[in-house]
Design a protein that fits this description.
One of its GO terms (cellular component) is plasma membrane. By secondary structure, the protein is mainly alpha-helical. Helix content is 82%, strand content 0%. It has 18 helices and no strands.
Length: 415
Amino acid sequence: MKEGLTFLRNFLKNQGQYVLVSLLIGKICAFLSSLFIIKLLPEHDFGKMSIVAALFAAFASCSGLGSHQSLLRFGSVTENEDQRKKLSGYLLRQGFMYQLLLTLVFLGFSVFYVTKYEDIFWIFGFFSIRFIGFYFYNYIQSELRINDKNRQFAKLNNVVNVLGLAILLILSYFFQLKGYLIAMAFTPFLSLFWFKMKGVSMKELPDIFNSKEIWQYALHTSGTTILSDALFSLDILLLGFLLNENAVASYRVVILIPSNVTFLALAFMQSDFPVLAKNYTDKNFIKNYISGYYKVFVPVCLGIFVVCAFFSKDILRLFFNEKYAENYILFIIFMFTFLMNILFRNLYGNLLSAVGKMSLNTKASFCSLVLLVTLSFILVPRYEILGMTLSVSITLIFSGFLLGYFFQKYLKELK
């Protein structure tokens, strides 16, 4: 109990409450956005948009080829403010070059879908604009976090999410899919109000940093994140390929709420990441952190699961309609899976990132992706949406246990 209270006190000391509220607002805005689009758009339009959004999610997670993640990791362990600024300027410049290349690759994927889905190229085009905006959004977030400005970080998220939702609702209501795409494409650029031009001209990395180490971390982070997020995108893409856009729409609805409960863990890990990075060799600190984390989140996860399992049909009827309530079993399976994510995959994946062991994250993500593809081609043709639900659930739980094993092995090696 004492460790749990200490865990919460440290969270508040790091201004984590602002991060928690901002992430909650972000999840609510994202949920309302999805709910509004589900009700507004025809099922075939929503299905096409979901296919592109799923691919975008995989690409967006490695914006700038992981440069903003390297900024977060190495900026957090750097005490000298001037060196942090130089590192930030260098990574911004270099990362943007990689971002432009990634955007072209993303747009190129449209050729695989244009023959099957009408007008999908234009959807790819608007998501490409959003992709560039996301690069600046991620960079500015990392810069605020390495400077212990969690309150400003939260304010940035709140403005982008709330104002973005308002713009999206207005444009979508009057212009349907076109309005949604325009709002979605330009919302991330609101973050530029927090952008500072200092140090942008930095072409060389300061001498105290190891270029190879920084870009290895960035590449592993990009690889890990794109493989990890592919687990939440590949299911949509495979359903679109193996079944149809109607199956995609139904599946997207049933996973929407469960996949968003992980924001609880994400709030703690985001606010605590700089502190964890600074103490990556302190075995007692890390063990106490894990113990406090479990004392807080085990009862929270149990409570959420009991409530959601008991009221599963009512929840689906309330937020969607009677048509989707018949998938309540899938809803319960996904809720269990994502709560297990909080206790294993989210915790140990972020801890491995904080201590600099991104290569282990990459290995776990690659194994998980192979498992998901294998299970999907076996189960989806036979069980359709249930088959994909089981494939994703087995894969995510497996990856959580594997990451836990990797981190415990690292912990034992610390003196």
